[in-house]
């Protein structure tokens, strides 16, 4: 089992998702070579790491991310909802995570947007990535094709990827039209035919989100190049150890 382990929103099964606590915990794990995160814009244009369009679920605040200034987002507690021991964790700026992860792990940066909700989001993320010369250390992904097209227009050197939760018949055509070289797909849609098709087209595939050890091993058996996105890097490690022991038992 050589499949790359991608920590979904950091080590989010233990620490509060998309916080520095979760990301730092993930980076301490030798099996984690990639991390996935979600980025939106504050009202004053700061790229911030948070999944939901509102702050309601993962902080002690209320309201839309895009209607809240960065100074106000910084004041919110983004940890106590998960566990009292994480009280005081904050919503990170993308810049902070890039600074801490540079040279340690690669990043799957999801542009969290719908339609024209965040017209300045691609440019803002690209600015932070280029500022740190991390173009080769990231892939920028989104459910929103227009956002990916904008990324390639502004930064053709950065890898982009489409996120989907189904498998349309014209998938490869769509990926080629957007110049995507990465596919992030819900794991139940992965099989050998998909992997063969994507490999032939030079497209890397990541399956999300897999926390079950048995499913991890089944997916690993489909293709060793399939990346596995998980909230549980510790379960990935168990799956790896069990698979390795089966092949290398004396």
Largest sheet: 8 strands, parallel, barrel
The CATH architecture would be: Alpha-Beta Barrel
The span between the termini is 18 Å
Count of DSSP strands: 9
The number of distinct structural domains comes to 1
Report the total helices.
9
Structural class, by secondary structure, is alpha/beta
Beta fraction: 15-25%
Tell me the CATH superfamily: Phosphatidylinositol (PI) phosphodiesterase
Multimer state: single chain
Helix-residue proportion: 25-40%
Overall mean pLDDT = 96
Domain GP-PDE: 3-240
GO molecular function: glycerophosphodiester phosphodiesterase activity
EC number: 3.1.4.46
Organism: Paenibacillus xylanexedens
What can you see in these coordinates?
With 250 residues, the protein is an alpha/beta fold. The protein has a single domain, classed as TIM Barrel, CATH 3.20.20. The protein is built from nine helices and nine strands. Strands 1-2-4-5-6-7-8-9 form an eight-stranded parallel beta barrel, surrounded by five helices. Strand 6 (159-164), helix 6 (171-177) and strand 7 (182-186) form a beta-alpha-beta unit. Helix 8 crosses helix 9. The longest helix has 16 residues, at 233-248. The chain is globular and about 45 Å long. The two termini are 18 Å apart. The model has no long low-confidence stretch (mean pLDDT 96).
